[in-house]
Amino acid sequence: MQATIAERLRARTRQLGLNPPQLAAQAGVNRSYVYDILRGRSENPNLEKLDRIAEVLKVGRDWLRDGVGDVEGDEPALTNPDDVYVAVPYATVKPAMGGGATVEIEPDHGKPYHFQKSWITHGLRADPANLRIMHVVGDSMEPTLRDGDIVLVDMGRAVPTPPGVFVLHDGIGLVAKRLEHIPNSDPPVMHVISDNKTYSAYERTADEVNIVGRVRWFAREI
Predict the structure, then answer these.
(1) What are the distances in angstroms from CA 134 to CA 114, 125, 212?
(2) 82 CB contacts (<8 Å, ≥6 apart)?
(3) Which contacts (CB < 8 Å, 24+ apart) does range 59-63 have?
(4) What is the chain written as a DSSP string?
């Protein structure tokens, strides 16, 4: 579907770091003129005033009206990045693949990782608020996960059915392991497995394990 004059005006204003009042002041027009366009109330605005707006935005008037014409520099993205990407906070905790680290799962205030919202909501079917990025350490999950890998953990999925790789506190420390529920066990028991066969699997009851979340994605440097 073709973009509207409101969407082009909004995108270019955002690209140049201007807000509507600033744009109106620099163009010498009333704020209501700008807001009427942005709110879809004026699809055929006064052309003399639109020329002033276009001059401030360094675009041709025809580009604002129809999307065809001159744009100084790069043409702006017509979609708000906040509507396209999800910011997933990084947790400073590093789950161990072998030993264990006893820490709380709290987001760091550092730079988040960004993922396409459509993939998060439709691909993973995850709530962005439940996601954390972590680094793992150790070699007990090789070759699946290696020391230093980045993992995306879904804290909204804390039940090992179906089996999978989870970040969990096993009573000793925080670890990344493969979990498998043992059917018909009473009380419920989980098999805690390392993909690296030099490490022995072990069992924990459900009461002994605090599952932080399921690992849904990973990345590594090469």
Answers:
(1) 14, 20, 12
(2) none
(3) 59/12, 63/8
(4) -PPPHHHHHHHHHHHTT--HHHHHHHHT--HHHHHHHHTTS-SS--HHHHHHHHHHHTB-HHHHHHS-S-BSSSPPPSS-HHHHEEEEPBB----EESS-B-----B-SSPPEEEEHHIIIIIS---GGGEEEEE-EESTTTTTS-TT-EEEEETT--S-SS-EEEEEE-SSSEEEEEEEEETT-SS-EEEEE-SSTTSPPEEEEGGG-EEEEEEEEEE---
Domain match, 120 and 39 both: no
Record the pTM: 0.62
Instruction: Assign residue 154 the CATH number of its domain.
Output: 2.10.109.10
Structure tokens at 142: 């090789």
CATH classification at residue 33: 1.10.260.40
Backbone angles phi, psi at 112, to 5 degrees: -80, 170
Tens digits of residue pLDDT in 28-78:
999 999 999 998 888 788 999 999 999 999 999 999 998 888 999 988 877
The answer on 105 and 32 residing in a single domain is: no
Using DSSP bridges, classify how beta strands 189-193 and 113-116 pair: parallel, antiparallel or unpaired.
unpaired
Domain range for 13 is 5-66
How far is 145 from 137, CA to CA, in rounded Å? Answer: 9
In a 10 Å sphere around its CB, with 0-12 CB exposed, 13-18 middle and 19+ buried, how is residue 85 labelled? middle
